[in-house]
Each structure stands twice: as C-alpha cells, then as structure tokens.
Amino acid sequence: MSRTTLTPPVGPSDHARGPAGAPVTLVEYGDYECPHCGAAHPVVQLAMRQLGDQLRFVYRHFPLAEIHPNAEPAAEAAEAAGAQGRFWAMHDALFEHQHALQARDLAALAMALDLDATRLARELLAHTHLEAVREDFLSGVRSGVNGTPTFFINGVRYDGDWRDPVAFIGTLQAAGTGLGVR
Q: Which of 86, 99, 101, 151 holds its CA 20 to 30 A away from the CA of 39?
C-alpha cells in the first residue's frame, strides 16, 4: 500500500467545494474523458451530500492526453469557466457529457451554463488556461499519480476501492475522526 503524500498541499489556487476547515479534505486527480473518473463522479457527489460540512473536495486536472485527446481541452474549458466564476458548473457538466467533449460541444456547454461562450472559445484557442492545467498535472506527477482517478484523503493517497460508495464514504468518515486512511 502506497503512503504517497500530496505535493503540494491544498492551497488557495485549488478549486474546492466545502469549508476550508472541514476535518476531511478529499483531492481527486481526474481526467474529464476518463470513464473511470466519470464513474467516480457520482460517488464523490454522494460523499459530499452525506458528509456535508465535514468534507472539502478539491479537484485537480490530470488529463491523460495520449489516450484521451479531448481531456486537456475539457480541463482548459473548466478553467475558462472558472475565470467566469463557474468552475464547478462546468466540472459537473463535463462529467455529465463525457461523450461530447469536442470544441463545439464545449462551446454548447458554455452557452447552456450561461457563460460568455465567445470568451471561452477565444481562451481555448489561445490556451489561456493551459498553464494551470499543466501545473495540476505536474503536481500529480510529484504526488505519485499515474492514473485516474487518484484520490488523496487528508494529504495521503487512498489506494482503497472508491467504486464501493459505502466503504469509500466510511473511509472518509474515519479520516474525519482521526482514525486515518487505509
């Protein structure tokens, strides 16, 4: 079992849901085109609903561009939406529409989310947010991430089964009580 730690730790530039003082911080390194990340998305949402203010969720980009050619542009679209104050809306929409991540699809999602679609398209063409995506990716490499999704609970890599929501949420609850991560 790996005891790899998160590098760097969660900071102000991370996209986070939930209170900063929550006893449990769950970090996901993910890829919007990865089917496993798509399957993990509702599990994470369930954990957020069940744990409420006890959980802070952080998402970091880890696009596996060689096997998922639309993952990096999708991550850039999430960052562009974030520049318009709508990162999480785009994040959720990307996972809900994993089958449609071409440039025209990203523009359609932006319009559906009432974003400035022209600005988003311009920023995608200019790769305005590519550096932020690559910074996340490099932090994943430094943290020992080699596939997606990879989770860290309170800074420690979680190597258990996230596919079992009961066990996964139980591990998160235990981390919040100081019982640790297995």
A: 86
